[in-house]
Amino acid sequence: MIRFEDVSVTYDGSDEPTVQGVDFEVPEGELVLLAGPSGVGKSTVLGAVGGLVPHFTGGTLRGRVTVAGRDTRTHKPRELADVVGTVGQDPLSHFVTDTVEDELAYGMESLGLAPDVMRRRVEETLDLLGLAGLRDRPIATLSGGQQQRVAIGSVLTPHPSVLVLDEPTSALDPAAAEEVLAVLQRLVHDLGTTVLMAEHRLERVIQYADQVVLLPAPGAAPVLGPPAEVMAVSPVYPPVVALGRLAAWTPLPLTVRDARRKAGDLKRELHNAAPEGRGELRDKPPTSRTRKRSTPPTPLGEVRALSVTRGRVQALSHIDLTLTPGETIALMGRNGAGKSTLLNALVGLVEPSSGTVRLGEATPHRTAPKDLVRKVGLVPQEPRDLLYADTVAAECAAADRDAGAAPGTCRALVSELLPDVTDGTHPRDLSEGQRLALALAVVLTARPPLLLLDEPTRGLDYAAKARLVTVLRALAADGHAIVLATHDVELAAELAHRVVLLAEGEVIADGPTADIVVSSPSFAPQVTKILAPQRWLTVTEVRAALHPEAG
């Protein structure tokens, strides 16, 4: 169905090809996962399937890509639209209408389908993706995850024979991600749809893949094979595989269920390594060690009885939250639960309908941006909102000036997060994950006491995520308060001291990470599910318990 024949792509102004030696085939009716570290060219490979590369992006494509017998060099994207449906990393770039229902119908209108067919398919897609309650909503009012589901639905309604998806679950909560992946599996198994998908959160998708195409490094030839075989040699792999490698399980398990079947000996060994067999829980934030003193640490921020109404939607209702120096808080919950709205209220982008938000003596929505930047920094879901310059070097120089920091401060942070990115690179030429890391470096240059991050691991591979965790832990140790709005349960398990769970704009749980996630089927990390009832959260904790001398 999809055939790559010795394909290389070189973009204008680049001396080296972004991808080269790409040679593989995706059979009809299979789900093939494209995996690899950030920046190796996965989005370029996906773009070549629908003709976006090179007809839209520019550059030179050598070799040949064929889809259902059509050569993408001679067929432009509009000539492939009836065969290929594509959803990129940024759903906003796909939308051409204002409401959910209109967007689902638009692609079929372009293909001239009959009105009764269009109506039936819209209803089917609304049900498939859990969007029926949003059908009349303006797309601009939806959460990022809801927008991603609409983008996926908009390419499903024309019933393409090939679906190309770039990080389709990156903005989805765990339950919504499972629903979308179940839909994709149904399309593959029942309708024979061919799916080529890139995804960094392998723990969500690896078990659904028929084959994995691994791009191991920039410019390296891909490795193709069954998921278990590829994961055995891959530089990127999910926690279940990491635990399997640590325990030397053969063959490597790809699912929690398979890992649990192998985990008996490991659980017995860990039971002896940890008091009461509960697992070693992470240290409390440094400030908690000072609570015996007569004066508790002064909070960096306080939210009291906060409510926010946006249009007719009650986005937040009676939120109370204290932000303590040195503490990392993960805001979690379904798409649309109010996580981003709470972050926006903390940074002054949203005015409370009632209640108060205070950062020291400052009220965020009444404080001038030049003063507020010294108190709080926000890395938004869409990092391009913070990036305006033509090169990484210019972006960093501007960040240094705006923050009053020493020249080179921002660039040093970029080097720590993105070791392979050069000064002359244009931010638009970075991958989604690389742009996010650059935006984080820009915000961190001012070293705000309160750091807010909205879905900070979108587009990040496991190595990049580990570097991010290292940076954020160091900031927390220095007394910064960090609030993450995230659907990444593995990040929360690795980093957060505390989890605040939101639903319908209200706090439904607030406590230590282990207490919240261990009891939640949706928000428990893979290691917790595998080793239950012991209370382990991460492979890092397990490794430290088994090999304390290595720590």
Automatic annotation (TrEMBL):
Molecular function GO labels: ATP binding
Name used for this protein in its record: ATP-binding cassette domain-containing protein
Compositionally biased residues, Basic and acidic residues: 268-286
Renumbered residue ranges of the record's region Disordered: 268-301
SUPFAM superfamilies the UniProt entry points to: P-loop containing nucleoside triphosphate hydrolases
The family this protein is said to belong to: Belongs to the ABC transporter superfamily.
A Pfam family annotated for this UniProt entry: ABC_tran
Keyword Transport in record: yes
CDD domains: ABC_cobalt_CbiO_domain1
Family matches, as Gene3D superfamilies: P-loop containing nucleotide triphosphate hydrolases
Domain ABC transporter: 2-243, 301-529
Cross-referenced InterPro entries: AAA+_ATPase, ABC_transporter-like_ATP-bd, ABC_transporter-like_CS, ABC_transpr_CbiO/EcfA_su, ECF_ABC_transporter_ATP-bd, P-loop_NTPase
Keywords, in A-Z order: ATP-binding, Nucleotide-binding, Transport
Domain of life (superkingdom): Bacteria
Keyword flag Transport: yes
Lineage, broadest ranks: Bacteria, Bacillati, Actinomycetota, Actinomycetes, Kitasatosporales
